[in-house]
Structure formats: C-alpha cells, structure tokens
C-alpha cells in the first residue's frame, strides 16, 4: 500500500480540513503500535484498551500519520499529521473499501492494456 495522507483523509471523510501534509506517504496501516512499521498509518481502535493511549509508542515505531477520533480532540498529537474522524473503526473500514476499489480499477486498467497489446501482435 502506498498512499498520501491527503488521499487517505479524503477517503475516510476526515472532519478536519486538509492541513499542510505535503507529500507525506503512507506505506501500510497498523492498529497495534507494537507491530507498527516505519511508514505506517496508526489507527487507534477502541476495545479493552483505548488505542489512543498508544500514540507515543506508534510514533517511536515510525508512524508517519494517525487517524484520530474527534471525541479525543483534547489529546491530539502534534508530532505527525492527524486525520480527524468521527470513529476510527468506521474510518478503517472506509479506507479498506477505498483501497480495494483502487486496486480493482488498476487491475481492470492493466487487463485493458494487456488486451490491446495482444491485438497488436
């Protein structure tokens, strides 16, 4: 996965206006800060623990941006781009759907190009 933060913000219908996120690239997503890899988008989920508590760990592991629930607006990190959403789980689902559609479009385009190439032979 390779997307820019601004594209992710649009895909998940961020409630904050696109800020100065010049060319910040995301190479993956993680909702467990212990398994996060450098370049990932951190997605804090609510469960037995509040994932928002682990933002510092995510930053230390190399998170380049985070989704952030708007009801946690008092604790917004300032160390990286924050994509504010109403609900992080819903935003994760929206991002997954968006990315899948993007892959389908690329796959379809690749097939069209391959068919056109075959016809030339």
From TrEMBL:
The EC number(s) this enzyme carries: 6.3.2.10
Name this polypeptide is given: UDP-N-acetylmuramoyl-tripeptide--D-alanyl-D-alanine ligase
SUPFAM superfamilies xref list: MurE/MurF N-terminal domain (SSF63418)
Keywords annotated in UniProt: ATP-binding, Ligase, Nucleotide-binding
Species lineage: Bacteria, Bacillati, Bacillota, Bacilli, Lactobacillales
Keyword Cell wall biogenesis/degradation among record annotations: no
EC class (word): ligase
Cited Pfam families: Mur_ligase
InterPro entries named in the record: Mur_ligase_N, MurCDEF_CellWall_CoF430Synth, MurE/MurF_N
Signal peptide start and end residues: none
Gene Ontology molecular function: ATP binding; UDP-N-acetylmuramoyl-tripeptide-D-alanyl-D-alanine ligase activity
Domain Mur ligase N-terminal catalytic: 26-96
UniProt keyword annotation of Repeat present: no
Protein source organism: Lactiplantibacillus plantarum subsp. plantarum
């Amino acid at each position: 996965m390779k997307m820019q933060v601004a594209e992710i913000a649009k895909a998940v219908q961020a409630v904050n206006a696109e800020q100065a996120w010049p060319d910040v690239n995301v190479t993956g997503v993680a909702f467990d800060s212990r398994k996060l890899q450098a370049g990932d988008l951190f997605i804090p989920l609510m469960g037995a623990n509040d994932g928002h508590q682990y933002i510092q760990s995510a930053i230390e592991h190399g998170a380049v941006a985070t989704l952030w629930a708007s009801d946690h607006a008092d604790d917004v990190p300032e160390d990286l781009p924050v994509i504010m959403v109403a609900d992080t789980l819903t935003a994760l689902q929206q991002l997954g759907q968006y990315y899948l559609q993007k892959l389908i479009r690329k796959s379809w385009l690749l097939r069209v190009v391959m068919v056109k190439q075959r016809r030339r032979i």
